[in-house]
Structure formats: C-alpha cells, structure tokens
Amino acid sequence: MRYLFRPPAAEAAGLLSLPWHQPLAEWDDALVLEVPQRGISRHVVRFTACDGRVFALKEIAEPLARHEYALLGEFEAEGLPSVSVLGICVDRPDDQEAILVTRYLEYSMSYRYLFSGPRAEHEPERLIDTLVQLLVRLHLAGVYWGDCSLSNTLFRLDAGSYTAYMVDAETAERYPTLSAGKRAYDVDLARERVGAELMDLQAGELLPEDIDPIQIADCLPVRYEALWDEINREEVFRADEQALRVAERLQRINDLGFDVGEIELVTSPEGARLRVDTRVGEPGQNRREFARLTGLEVQEKQARRLLNDVHSYRAYLETRGGGSVPELEAGRRWLTEVYLPVVSAVPEELAGRLAPAEIYHEVLEHRWFLSERSGFDVGTWAAVRSYLQQVLAATPSELTTPSVIADRNGSVDRLVTGRSRSD
Amino acid sequence: MASIEMRNIVKQYGDGFPAVNDVSLDIADGEFMILVGPSGCGKSTLLRMIVGLEDISSGDMVIGGKRVNDLAPRERNLSMVFQNYALYPHLTVFENIAFPLRLSKTDDAEVRRRVTEAADVLELHEHLERKPANLSGGQRQRVAMGRAIVRHAEAFLFDEPLSNLDAKLRGQMRTEISRLQRRLGITTVYVTHDQTEAMTLGDRVCVLRKGKIQQVASPRELYEQPVNLFVAGFIGSPPMNFLPARPEGNRLTTPFGPVELDQKRAAAVAGRDLLLVGIRPEYFEDASLVDEAKRPLGTLFRARVDVTEWLGDQQYAYIPYEAPAEITSQLRDLSRELDSEELRTQAIVSIDSTSRIREGREAEFWLDTRKVHVFDPTTGENLTRDAEAGARLTQMAEEDRAEQVQEAQAGMQGRHAGAA
C-alpha cells in the first residue's frame, strides 16, 4: 500500500495503524466514530478519531482520489472554502479502491439538520444564498464543480449567518477561467440537486410544511445570476461621482462577502468605467487581525464581532486606568479576563454544540436581548447563565462536534479500562 | 430526437493551441456515434462543445436543424447521462426517476406516463414503488438512465461513463447502454478512450488524433480498412503488428520472410523503398494446424518464440524481430501516442489454443497474406486500403442496425400492448 500526504500532517502518523488493507465497510466499529446528520453519498464514507482530531475516510477509484487530493490541496492553499485534505491511501490489496482522507470540518452542520432540525432555519433562502456565494467564489476561481449540491456542502455558523464549504471535489475541474456555458451548466445541476434533496427531505417528513422544494430550487439560478452580476458588472458613471461610486461599489462587494483584489478605472471625457477584480479566497482581514491580537482562529464575521468587543474592552481599560493600553496587551487581557471565562462556563454536557466563538457571539446577542427587555444592562454573567440554560441547553446534542464526542469517548475508555487514548 | 451536424468546428485555447481542429461530422438521427482516441485527442472537448460547456471558436454546431453555437446548455435540450448518480433515500424509485419532471412542473399524468415508459425500457417496473436502498449496482445505474430518458432530450451524451467502474459492472453497463440505445432509438454520442468500448457500442466510430478526425466508419471498416497507421494501431486488441518491409516485384521482404501481394496491392506500393506491413494477430497460425487447402493462401516462416500466453480459449505467441532504426523510432512514437505499453518490435501472434508451440523454441508459422495492409512509414497512409470494400462494411452495419432498432422497438410496443 502507498500513503500520500502533504506536510504538515503530523496527525497522520497515528492513522497509519488503521486496517487500510480491509474494505472500509468492514472496519471494526471500535475504530470508527458515529457522525450523525450526514448527506447523501454514493461511496462508503466513515469517520475516525486520532489524537483529538476527526477524519473522514472515503473509498473511491484511485484516479478520482488522486484528482480530488490534488484539487483540495490547491483550494486550501488559495483560501477557497473547502474541506482540508490530509492524504490518500492507494495500492490497497485485492484491487480495492483508494481511500481519500479529509480533516473533518468541526462545528459544521449538514443541510439535513439546517432544514429539519429543531433549530431549523426559518429563511431557507438564506442557506441557498450561502450556497450560491460558495458557487460564485468557486466560479471566480475557475472551478467547475460538476456536482454542486447540499449534500456536498457543509455549513458553519459565523456570527449568526452561515458560511458554506465544499466537501466533495470528485467531479470538480480547474480552468484558468470558466466559460459561460460551464457556469450555466453548473448552476443547472445545482438547481436540480437542491430540488431533489429537498423533495427527499419532504418525502421523509423532515421538511417544514411551508417550504416548497421547487420554489427554493428555482430561486437558486436567480440568486446566482444576481450575485454574479453584482460582482462582475462593469459600471460607467460621470467623472464627478467617481469617488463616491467606487467607494459604494467596494462596500457592496465587501457586504456580499468578497474581498476586492484590484480595481481598474478607465476615464474618458464621457465618464469613468469601473471594473473590479474580486479575490477568490475567503475574506480574512478581520480573522487575521483577531488572530494577531488573541491567537485565536475564528471565522471572519465572528472575528469582526469579537474585534469590536476587544476594542470596547481596550477603551474600558484605558478609561479605568487613565492611560493608553497597547492593543496587544488589550487583546491578551480581553482573552483571559473576558472571553475565556465566558466560554469556559459551558458545562461539560453542553460542550461542542457550538464553536466557542459562536457561543461568545450568541452570549453578546443574548445580553443585548435581555437588556432590551429589562430596560437596563443585565451584565455579562447574568447573560451567560441565562444563555446556557435557555439557549444552549435547547440546542440539540446531535450538533456536538465529532472531536468533542471522540474526546468524551476517549475519557470513558480511560475510565472504564484504565487505558490511555494512545494505546 | 435529432441529428447533430458539425461544420468545420475549431476549438482554440488562449495560447492558440487548437484542441479541436476543423472537425466536420454528421451524426444521423438515432445513430450511436463514438468519439474515441488517446488522451489529448480532443474527444471530450468536442462532446463539451455539443453540450454547450465549451465555447466554439469557429464553425457551426447544428442540432435538429438549428444552429446552437450561442445557446446555453439548458436550451439545447440534451441529456448528459450519469451526470447525477445520487439516489435519494426517502424518494421511491418512481420519484427518483421523476424528479427532473417535478422540477419543471410537468403535470402528474404526463409524469406517470413518462416514468412508466422509462421503467418499461429499463425493466425497473417492479421496483418503482420501493425505496432505492436495496437496488443492485446495475439497477442504480438504470435509475440514473431513467432520469435522462424522462426528459425526452434530443440526444444522449456520455463522457467516459464507465471509466471508474469495476470490470464486472463495466461489462454489464456496456450491455445496458447498448440495449437502451437500440430500444429508444435516440441519437447518442459517447466519448471513450477504450477501443473495446468503441468497437462494441458504436454504429459508427470517429477516431480522433490531436484534434483532427482520422476516420469515421463502422467498427468493422475501421478494423479491416483503416485509413492510416494511427487508426490501424489504435483499433484492435491485441494491436496490429507492424513489420518493416521492402517491395520486390509482387512480394514484400519482411523479417518473417516474403509476403505475396495481389496485383492491385503490389501496384499500390510499387516504386517505394522502405514500408511498413500491418498484420493483425489473427492472420497468423501455428503452421502444423493449418489445413492443406488453406496453406497456399499464405506464406510459411520459421521464428523463435519468446513468450507464449495460453488463455484457455485462445493463445498468443510473442515473436521479436529486427527493424531498422528509423522504423523502430517511428513505432516507438506511435506506441507513445497510443498510450500503449506494447513493445512494437515484437509481433503478437494468435495461435490455436491447442497449439504445442512453446516459448524459447523455434517454430513454423503460417501467415494469411490476403488481408495485410501496407503503410507509408513517413506519412502513415495506408497504401492498400480498399475504400469500396470499407464502404460496403459500413453499409452492412447500417442495415443490421436498422433491423435491430426495428426489432427492439417492435418488442417494446408488443410489451406495451400486453400491458394495456
């Protein structure tokens, strides 16, 4: 057998002892992790945990595995929202198919949960917009998906909104640019799959009654066209409104979740023509800034929200101390004095249902909500207590991210057998 | 259903490289056309231009009499079969087939009619009300075909659909696709790099090389009357053997002794120096097993056998031969272009499975010289191709096919009448 992986893949070492020579379907249950709420796959897919991390294993034909491994690696390097690939195992005995190993996208949710779970999304169009944003981003990067569907997408909460990630790149193809035909076809396929997936949920009585699968599917191409046009259209305006119009356009593109790479402005006596090149990677300005101040990896909108909180805390420290506080010190103190106490207050049994940064965001929202209702600021700790009891406890346990489940199972193993997880 | 006509189709990429170069091809209404060739020959690009995924640099793409160059994929009403394999677990097999119609808001009676019709063709009737969980691999693929059928598309398009299936399912699917196409009589374009798939499925096969059409003909015409060295080498498995040859009057001198040519072929090669003679493996036989009556139709030669391969119902012997350097390098290039691993200065010879010829020994072989072809090693042109004989073969294939389609469709109608 042959294993291919790209460094850094230190975590891969622990995986090497798995029974790669056996068909995935026959692996011992003790080696695999039950992960609920999965989409539809035509391959055998199983999950396994190793040193606190969770991996998805998919059995597919070797050429497809090699292709997907290469593409996902490229996508990750360019900051496209996709799952992160660890490696492949090929040349398995008895002409078995290859296995592609990806890192599980922690704190992600499948469409099945989002459309039918107790925290079900009341605005299904919002999820379609998220999917459309992903598809547009991929198309801008010259990626033809060939199988865009809800099953092949995972969603992550990002400060109350969603971010979509491409999970399956088996049919994807990369080009310098995509022809209009390829984009149109990709959108046609996406519409059809989304429609079928929602009809499937409906047939399984898993879809709220007021959601019409066909109507939702039909809105996908419309939303796609609107977003594509918004990002790519060339604008012409008078020279005197130039500054304002450029600023408006950039703001609009940022609001849509895209970063601007380059602006081309051509002026002539008739006016100015503006063309904007959008960066294909996910926006990351706030994320990077937040990581610089606190060392925490969070998502972009979460970062924007938390950065505001860091800034207010810095202002508070400065007012209280009567002198300036360097931003790095403010970041460090915010982390230890504000953020960590809040997220550490989550009891063990509720851990892993939402990402810590999302919990913090929800606590801020909850505090605002309680304060509005009471007519005065209820303060952080009252908000935390109420949030944990009223909101987080009502978030279903099947949302618990697999690494936390694996960690719990590991602790149970240790308790029961006295073994350590590395045995 | 519709015919597909391509007129001087060119696909040029930004760097000026023509992936498809001046292709003109007529696919008749109801015909099963295969696009085949090694990787990089332009076959997938051509298919994608039919579907509308690739822009056409120049030329006309005409489907059902309408120029479609500027139409979006959806407006062309073609069906890429197997594009969506996913089976939806809560939907019945019926709804798994019907959903494209549901999405286009087709009325219930029409949905029922089309799905029933597709289920008839695919023999999925007894499964229609079940959930797909327990379908076999082959049945799952048939559901995917059902989705394509209910759309009533102008044509079916397949882009290497079997390349990632295991050998057993691949064989099974080949049969299914062929049967389906006959029954529906739907225009079909099928891309493959596998010449076995090409030969077993197509009414006609279009062989492409570096973006250009080499030959469009029935599988038998390609096999027996190839236009050039490339087609001759690509079609057939094991491949045709190419030996260096020099004409001397009515015969060719080859490493396996002299090969007699008839008047017509001798005239075609007269006055040339170094040539390549192309001999299919089955034109050889173990001399000791050839009928006295047949012997005069060929020549005898002795050679040392390097390896024999006994496969039960057939047997192959590998005979190395010497060739001048210019021929060796020509053959090496050809092998490389055909993605073939065969060593071309070794003849692969088919002998009867009862033959006692053993490896490492010298043996006597008989060579049927009637069907050998002679190629110009520089241009690759087949100097001895009989175009009329080739056209007759393709004509015969067309007649056979018309008959098969009629039978398949009569069978379908019979079953409909029975069901009514």
Q: Could you walk me through the main structural features you see in this protein, from its secondary elements to its overall organization?
A:
The complex is a heterodimer of chains A (423) and B (420). Chain A is of the alpha+beta class and 423 residues long. Chain A is 46% helix and 16% strand. Chain A contains twelve helices and 13 strands. Chain A has helices spanning 62-77, 111-116, 124-140, 180-203, 213-232, 242-255, 285-294, 300-321, 327-344, 356-374, 380-391, 402-417, and strands at 2-5, 45-50, 53-60, 84-90, 98-103, 108-109, 143-144, 153-158, 161-166, 173-174, 235-237, 260-268, 271-278. In chain A, the strands form four sheets. Chain A has a five-stranded antiparallel beta sheet. Chain A starts with a strand and ends in a 6-residue tail after the last helix. Chain B is 33% helix and 27% strand. Chain B has helices spanning 43-51, 93-103, 108-122, 137-150, 167-184, 195-201, 219-224, 229-234, 263-269, 325-337, 387-419; strands at 4-12, 18-27, 32-36, 58-63, 66-67, 79-80, 156-159, 188-192, 204-209, 212-217, 241-248, 251-254, 257-260, 275-279, 284-286, 298-304, 307-310, 315-320, 346-351, 362-368, 373-375. In chain B, strands 6-7-8-3-9-10 form a six-stranded mixed beta sheet, sandwiched between helices. In chain B, strands 13-12-11-14-21 form a five-stranded antiparallel beta sheet. In chain B, strands 2-1-4-5 form a four-stranded antiparallel beta sheet, covered by helices on one side. Chain B is globular.
